[in-house]
Design goal:
This protein is mainly beta. It has a single domain (23-116), classed as Immunoglobulins (Immunoglobulin-like). Helices cover 0% and strands 49% of the residues. The chain contains no helices and eleven strands. The strands form three sheets. It has a five-stranded mixed sheet, with no helix packed on it. A four-stranded antiparallel sheet has the order 4-10-9-8, with no helix packed on it. Strand 6 and strand 7 (66-72) form a beta hairpin.
Length: 118
């Protein structure tokens, strides 16, 4: 029988650059997924900048922050990294993370982050 993992999404606002307020929001507090299943975590953000980067990180129970993937705002192609992919919608200011073939080690807190390109 496949194990059941639990993924947590958290709200975080990370901004590195000129003093313009940026907001990053993750609406779902937690998601459950069966092992080998697929899960999508959503993130929205606000910015008046045109050149920036968006990131996903995870924090497993051990506590370290682990980089997963980065999307450059000027790239139209969605970023992918192994079992992770993003759906980047610049006009809608939405940035979701899709985890395919989920595994028990995916049980973690997930963070969406923004960084100005400057």
């Amino acid at each position: 029988m496949a194990g059941l993992g639990l993924l947590w999404a958290a709200m975080v606002s990370i901004y590195l650059g000129p003093s313009v307020a940026q907001t990053v929001t993750q609406p779902q507090p937690q998601e459950s997924v069966q092992e080998t299943g697929t899960v999508t975590l959503d993130c929205t953000y606000s910015t008046s900048e045109s050149d920036y980067y968006l990131f996903w990180y995870k924090q497993p129970p051990s506590g370290e922050m682990v980089y997963i993937i980065r999307q450059n705002a000027y790239e139209q192609r969605n970023a992918t990294n192994d079992r992770y992919s993003v759906n980047f919608q610049k006009e809608a200011k939405a940035f979701s993370l899709k985890i395919s073939d989920s595994q028990l080690e995916d049980a973690a807190m997930y963070f969406c982050a923004y960084s100005g390109a400057q």
